[in-house]
Amino acid sequence: MTSGLGFYNASVILEAATDELDANVAAVSGATTAFFAISGIAGFAASPFIDRIDVRWFYLVGGVVGAGALSALRWVDSIVELYVFFGFFGIGFALAGLVPGTTVVARWFHVRRSVALSIATTGLSVGGIAVTPFAARVIDGRTLAGAGPWMGLAWLAVIPVSFFLIRSWPGDLGLQPDGAPQPPPGIEPEALSGATFAQAKRSRFYRLLSATYALVFLAQVGGLAHLFNLTTERVDKGAAAAALSTLAFASVAGRLLGGVVVTRVPIKALTSILIVVQAGSLALIAFASTKVALVVSAAIFGLSVGNLLMLQPLLLAETFGVKEYSRIYSYNQLFGTIGVAGGPFVIGFIRDLADYEVAMLVGSAANIVALATFVAAGSVSDARKTWMPANSAF
Questions:
Q1: pLDDT digits 0-9 by tens, 221-269
Q2: Do 69 and 85 form a contact (C-beta atoms < 8 A)?
Q3: What angle do CA 281, 286, 291 make, to 5 degrees?
Q4: 393 in any annotated domain
Q5: β-strand partners of 321
Q6: Could you tell me if residue 178 is inside a domain?
Q7: How far is CA 249 from CA 47, 179, 299, 304, 382, in A?
Q8: pTM to 2 decimals?
Q9: Are 103 and 95 in contact (CB under 8 A)?
Q10: What is the pLDDT of residue 188?
């Protein structure tokens, strides 16, 4: 739900707001930039508490705040009010989104964590498949003001249910990760192993991984936010909806496949390959002008989107453990938010300055720079040595 009404839906809201508020693409893109920026800051601000407080409370609060923000779309009739809406929506999105979600999965699964993360984060793409097209139809038929309360109701009806279905730690049910029994008294549970936040952020791998994902997300989220508008301009809204849904389907299939492949292929090599795939897909979108070409390009883009999003938390969990995972992930995500927040604005600005062809090529180039940064980060095994005792079996 957070992905379908937030992450993927940002592109739909952007297109609708551009038309309804009679604003240029760059101005509206700034509002989606604010959404992603505030969500990153809110996620990092909440992370120390996620390590100490029952994570279910974050889903509950995020459900209420997000639903309230969406319902308030009925009163948005200016660019300033659009920015205010996205600010509050960003807080709800963060509290019920990736930081608590990936934290819970990383705590509960160690042996086949990549498969667990790939299955859990499939919900992101399912949101794009099942929720975003519905939201687009409602917005198209009722305008943003009329659609807002319905989207808020859907958000409120689904997300707080997590309060009854999720447990923060395996220990809450007397277990260790992967269902193993608790160890004898006096032995630290495996779930608590890992680097501290201070140890992680001192390492070169962590710093350069943060820079890598800032660039990856700049291109990825910028492309996602503008795909609907780009396709509408070049073909029509039907083709735009098809391209967005195809991207989401490809993201699901690619992520499930990637979760298995990463158990057999070194995680750094797979991540590097997918950065190249994302660069190539954005270059294809830049030149695509027919429905078939845009849908095929979106499918390739989806393969990279789903996997790169899944590999970021997996890289961090595999390298630094889960002792202070929520802080380690959210701080890395905060830097990634620079790209997430800047992507829609940068692509929109370049589009207004030139056209979408140039804008998407800039996104492609950002991935090439990201690949160089990632290669310079060093290996996962070397990063582990910066905090892990020599005799550890981690």
A1: 899 888 988 999 999 888 998 998 888 888 888 888 888 898 899 999 9
A2: yes
A3: 85
A4: no
A5: 194
A6: no
A7: 31, 31, 8, 12, 36
A8: 0.78
A9: no
A10: 54
| 125 or 109, higher pLDDT | 109
State the residue for tokens 């078939």: 292
- Please state, in angstroms and rounded to a whole number, the distance separating the CA atoms of residues 327 and 46: 9
Output the domain CATH number for residue 143.
1.20.1250.20
Is the per-residue pLDDT at 392 higher than 70?
no
- Is 288 in a helix, a strand, or coil? coil
Terminal alpha carbon distance of the chain: 35
Domain region containing 286: 2-171+191-385
d(CA 38, CA 375): 29
**Residue 150 pLDDT more than 80?**
yes
b/e 122-135 (16+ beta carbons within 10 angstroms → b): bebbbbbbebbbbb
Exposure string over 199-238, b if 16+ CB within 10 A, otherwise e: bbbebebbbbbbbbbbbbbbbbbbbbbbbbbbbbebbeee
**Could you tell me the two tokens for 334?**
């905060």
**203: CB partners within 8 A, 6+ apart:** 383, 386, 387
Count of domains observed in the chain:
1
pLDDT of residue 34: 84
Side-chain half-sphere CA neighbours of 215 within 13 A: 20
